[in-house]
Each structure stands twice: as structure tokens, then as C-alpha cells.
Amino acid sequence: MDRVNGASTVRFVELFGPIYEHSPWIAQRAHAHGPFADGEAMLAAMRHELDRATDAEKMALIRAHPELAQRMGVDPTLTSASAAEQASAGLDRLTPDEFTTFRTLNDAYAARFGIPFIICVRRSDKEGILNGIRTRLDNTPEEEQQAALREINKIAALRLADVLARLEQEP
Q: Does the keyword field hold Lyase (predicted)?
């Protein structure tokens, strides 16, 4: 954590800005809470900054997430982290029927909530993701915004652990 705590704001955001999809402002604001005892403390600072963000900022973060199970190359904003996460759940290798099912559910979800369906795919599989979409379609918009933010925090925790592990391996 010495390297993390000694990082300038610019370097900190460079390292940890991608933790929350296309939202480096979270890392930038969290940097002020350092020094951090450990990764959990750093994650708590980031979650704190997300919790105190405006509704518009939260919605922008939610909308920054990619739609799941798009055909590769369709979404030019797909980050390498998102692509790898989706691949880990097999979403890059859907059969035509699976793709149609995802497309139908994604469309229904987007029509109902106006946001992409967000789930921590690294903690799920294709069937779990499909069940999640089906179940969460019954939520109210407010419940779904909170569900999306909970999932975003799960994703961020895994991404943070990945970055910290890479930093530990560097000389």
C-alpha cells in the first residue's frame, strides 16, 4: 500500500480510475481519503464517494456500463475489463438462440428502466445472468437503480483486487 498511498492524484486516478466504468471521478475523489490501511479501506473510500454522488452522477455511472452479450466489436466503448469479464461468463460465445434470448431480455429491461442491465458477471454464469434479468424486471425503477449500484460495487471490488495484485507483482 506504500506505493498506492504515495501516488499523486494523477497517478492514483490513472491506476484506479477504471475501477468504476468510465467514471474516474470516483477514484479522484477517493484519493483525498488516503492514506489507506489496505484495499478494503480504499474500496470503502470509493464506495463513500459513490454514495454521496449526485443522482445524475450515479445515473451516468450506471449508463456507462455496457449492455451484456452484445456481439464483439459492436460496442466501441467496451473496456478491456468489461470484455474480459463478459468472456469469463461465456457471453462472447453465445449460440444464436442464446443471443436472441439475451437480446430480447436486454431490450425489455432497457425499455422498462432506461439503463443497461448490470450484474457482476464474474460471480455468475449465463443462466444466472438470464435469471437475474428476468427476476429484476419485476423491480421498481428505484429498486433497480439500487440493485445496479450494488452490482457495480461488486464489480469494482474485483477490479480493485486485480489492480492491487498487479501492483504487488511489479518490482
A: yes
